[in-house]
Amino acid sequence: MGIKGMNEKKLNISYQSLQTMANDSATQWHALHQQVAALGVLQKRVLQILPGELSSHCRVTRWQQGQLTIAVNDAAAITGLRYNSAGLRDQLRQLPEFSNLTQIHFKVIPLPDEKPITATHHETQEIKQARILSSSAKTLLKEAISDLNTNPAAAKLTEALSKLTGS
Predict the structure, then answer these.
(1) What is the mean predicted confidence (pLDDT) over 103-116?
(2) What is the SS3 assignment for 103?
(3) Cα separation of 164 and 159, whole Å?
(4) Which of 147, 154, 67, 50 is nearest to 102 (CA)?
(5) pLDDT-based confidence at 67, cuts 50/70/90?
(6) Segments in the chain forming alpha helices (H)
(7) Is residue 69 domain-resident?
């Protein structure tokens, strides 16, 4: 077999490998889509049972081998859910989708539409507070300067305070 025949064979193998990978990917995407759809159905069922004030904090994230995992975006809500988990488990078991439910896990995880507070947010708040304090301090310093201007012995202090306020 010549070089041309070897290249064709490599090309053919590569094409078959790509085709196999594409078929596998399509199968995996289909399976993933089915899992997401199933979780959506389970989410609706769980929300029907949860009290209204708790349902807005919860999202079903996993259902496997009789174990349900619910993401909760609030520590207070998770405490209430853990306290009532046995009753919730019993109610869910009455539904056909959860007939083999053995355990419920709760995890604190921010929900996707939630914007977590970041360090930048805190820094921004601190900077705003510092600016407010700074403008208040500037006003007080200017008042002190005007009071000191009447006292000739405080000329150096008046000069230093003027530099601080930028006047």
Answers:
(1) 74
(2) strand
(3) 9
(4) 67
(5) very high
(6) 3-49, 52-55, 75-83, 85-93, 119-148, 155-165
(7) yes
